[in-house]
Amino acid sequence: MDVIRPLLLEQFETLDALLAGIEGDAWFTPTNLPGWTVKDIAAHLIGTESLLAGVATPHVDIDVHTLGHVRNEIAAFNEHWVEHLRRVPGPEVSARYRDIVAQRRESLGSMTQADFDAPADTPVGPATYGRFMRIRVFDCWLHELDIHDALGTTGSEGGPRAELGSAEIFGAVPFVVGKRGKAPEGARITIELTGPLARTINLEVAGRASVVPSLSAPATSTITMDSTLFVRLAGGRVSGVDKLGEVALGGDTVVGRRIVENLAFTI
Q1: Do residues 203 and 189 lie in contact, with contact meaning Cβ atoms separated by under 8 Å?
Q2: Sequence ranges of the domains in the chain
Q3: 50-73: per-residue pLDDT in tens?
Q4: For residue 129, how many C-alpha atoms fall within 13 Å in the half-sphere facing its CB?
C-alpha cells in the first residue's frame, strides 16, 4: 500500500493537469485506441474510478456490444461511459474527472494495509484490492501516454510511476513469448530494452517460457528496441508488423519476429 497508493494519487494528479490543459478541438483528436478520441479516454478513466466509488453504470441508448472494437464485457462497460459522456464538452469532462478522483483520493486515504490485502475482483480475475490498484496505475499511466501520443506531446515514459505501471507488462512477458509468440522448446531469448525503462530480459523455454537471471547458453534469438516502442507494442497501441524497422533482431529471426508481432497482451 505504501508504494502503490502514493503513486496512484500522483498519477491522478498528472492526468488531472494533462486534461485541464486540453483546449478546443484537441479533445476530439483520434488516439491509437480504435474508436476513441482523447475525450473518450477521459470518459473511460471517469468510468473506472466511478465503478470503484460505487457509482452505477449509466444507461445508454445503443447496444455497445455491436461496436466493432468491443470484444468483451470489460470493453462494453468502458463503452457505456464513453457513450454517456460523448456529448459532454471537454472542459466539463475534465471537471468530472477531477471530482471523481477527489472522491477516490479520500477513499484511498482512509484505507489500511488490510483493505489493500482484501480479496477483490480485478480485470485479471480474482486477486486483491491492492493488485487492482496496481492495475489502475498501469491503466492510467498507459492512457496518459495515449493522450500525449495523440496530441504530439511527451508523457511519463520513465520514473517510479512508469516502473510500477510497466510491472504489469513485464510480468506478462513469459506468457507473450511462450503462448502468443510460440517460442519453441529449448529457445533462449534475450529482449534488450533501451530508453527510459531500459533492462535486459532473459527467457528460456523448458515446457513453458520463464524469465531467468541469465541464460544457460548463448541466446537463440535476440530482440532489441526502445522501451517506448515496447510499451506501445505490449499495449496493442501499434502493430509489430508496422514497427519491425525499429527493432533489431538477431539469431533465429523468425522466432524473434513472431514474438514482436504478438507482443500485445492487453484485453
Answers
A1: yes
A2: 4-154+161-167, 172-261
A3: 999 999 988 877 777 777 787 777
A4: 14
pLDDT digits (tens, 9 = 90+) for 162-179: 999 999 999 999 999 999
What is the architecture of the domain spanning 4-154+161-167? Up-down Bundle (1.20)
Q: Which amino acid is residue 103, in one-letter code?
A: Q
Angle between helices 129-151 and 38-52 (to 10 degrees): 170
Q: How far is CA 92 from CA 12, 14, 34, 106, 258, in A?
A: 17, 18, 23, 21, 44
The three grid cell numbers given for residue 216, joined into one nine-digit string = 544457460
Is 215 or 59 the better-scoring residue by pLDDT?
215
Report the CATH superfamily, name and number, of domain 172-261. SCP2 sterol-binding domain (3.30.1050.10)
Name the pLDDT band for 79 (thresholds 50, 70, 90): confident
Count of residues for the chain? 267
Contact (Cβ atoms closer than 8 angstroms) between residue 193 and residue 182 = no
How does residue 114 score in pLDDT terms, banded at 50, 70 and 90? Answer: very high
Dihedral, CA of residue 131, residue 134, residue 138 and residue 144, to nearest 10? 140
Residues contacting 91, CB < 8 A, separation 6+: none
Strands (E), the chain: 119-122, 125-128, 188-194, 199-206, 208-212, 221-226, 248-251
